[in-house]
Amino acid sequence: MPQVAPHDPFFRVASVPAFTHPLLAGLAAGRYAAVRVPGLLSPERCEEILTALEHRTFDSYGKARVQPPVMRFGVGISDHMAQGGVADGYWAALEGHRRAWRDLGLSFDPFAACRQALGAHWPGGVAVGRRGGRELGDGVAREPNQGFLVHFDDASREYTEDLLDVPLIGQFAFNLYLSVPPSGGETVLWRHRWQPEDEAYRLPASYGYDEAVVRGAESLEITPRVGEALLIDPRFFHAVRPSRGARRVALGFAVGLASSGQLVTWA
Ligand SMILES: O=C(O)CCC(=O)C(=O)O
Ligand SMILES: [Fe+2]
Q1: Confidence at residue 15, expressed as pLDDT on a 0 to 100 scale
Q2: Closest CA relative to residue 135, chosen from 73, 49, 77
Q3: By CB neighbour count within 10 A (0-12 exposed, 13-18 middle, 19+ buried), where does 238 fall?
Q4: What are the DSSP calls for 210-250, one per residue?
Q5: What pLDDT, on the 0 to 100 scale, is given for residue 178?
Q6: Which ligand 1 atom sits closest to the C-alpha of 173?
Q7: In whole angstroms, what is the distance from residue 208 CA to residue 69 CA?
Q8: Is residue 233 in contact with ligand 1, taking CB distance under 6 Å?
Q9: pLDDT of 26-58, one tens digit each?
Q10: How many whole angstroms separate alpha carbon 102 and alpha carbon 109?
Q11: φ, ψ for residue 232, nearest 5 deg
């Protein structure tokens, strides 16, 4: 008899018209690995942002840590981590970030629109997270044309103390795709969470791991569409495959489920 790989019925993707209360609760509880909402932003709104970004200079994430390079427009907190906390430079950089996004002259606030859709049905609502009373970054536009290595995101492990003023009881990663390539650019998730033995696979000084870290684990692959929002549980190891033929640009931010019941975002 041929061997059929066992499948976890909860390691699945929901594709739905809206971020409903049960689906967000299900994602936090581990009954889903990801939730996709096609058409969260209209093609016109995506195009408006892309056109505004077209002639802007993107920065790259810290070159030592992020190889192959990932470009971004806006400030991300991962470049400002210091001794398990947040470096002062983050707050200074955020002022430039707010100016840069304001100077795009968009007819709407794209991160506010994403937050609104994310929290529309969530009883506790959604807000940009705070640290020491100060509001964190609202999001970045990211361009991982050469992909993201296999990695996971977990603020509870990355920071010594609570990152935000409210403790988190769950975490998600939010992406809204503005431009996708005709081939490549898939987001891959593995049903594997970090365990101490995995450190043997960490690439030196990098955010990423050798792909052997997820060998044998069940996986699922998502091909993003323009205007679609994807919410994943980022504690599952995940990666983005290299793009071919066009830019892969997404709005992104981290989402925490606070112990207060509110959803809080940061970047
Ligand atoms: O671009 C994506 O689809 C996922 C990027 C990622 O690693 C994240 O959002 O944590
Ligand atoms: Fe990630």
Answers
A1: 98
A2: 77
A3: buried
A4: -GGGGTT--EEEE---TT-EEEE-TTEEEEEPPEESS--EE
A5: 98
A6: 9
A7: 12
A8: no
A9: 999 999 999 999 999 999 999 999 999 999 999
A10: 9
A11: -120, 165
β-pairing, 13-15 vs 34-37, is parallel
Is the CB of residue 243 below 6 angstroms from any atom belonging to ligand 1? no
Ligand 1 lined by 24 (C-beta under 6 Å): no
Tokens of 155: 């603020």
Is pTM beyond 0.90? Reply is: yes
| Distance from the alpha carbon of residue 107 to the mean position of ligand 1, in angstroms | 26
Region 232-261: what's the mean pLDDT?
Answer: 98
Atom 10 of ligand 1: nearest residue by CA position: 173
- In which residue are the tokens 């994310």 written? 118
2, pLDDT greater than 80: no
- Neighbouring residues of 192: CB distance < 8 A, sequence distance ≥ 6: 213, 214, 217, 236, 237
Six-digit token string for 121: 């049905």
pLDDT band per the 50, 70, 90 thresholds, residue 6: confident
State the Cα torsion 49-52-54-56 to the nearest 10°: -120
Which-ligand-closest: CA of 249? 1
Residue-wise pLDDT tens digits, 60-111: 999 989 999 999 999 999 999 999 999 999 999 999 999 999 999 999 999 9
Instruction: Measure CA 167 to chain center.
Output: 19
- Assess contact for 109 and 146: CB atoms under 8 A: no
- What DSSP character marks residue 208? -
CA dist 118 to 36, 98, 172, Å? 11, 21, 11
The pLDDT-based confidence of 132 (bands split at 50, 70, 90) is very high
How much is the average pLDDT of 216-227?
98
Strand, coil or helix: 124? coil
Domains assigned to the chain: 19-266 (2.60.120.620)
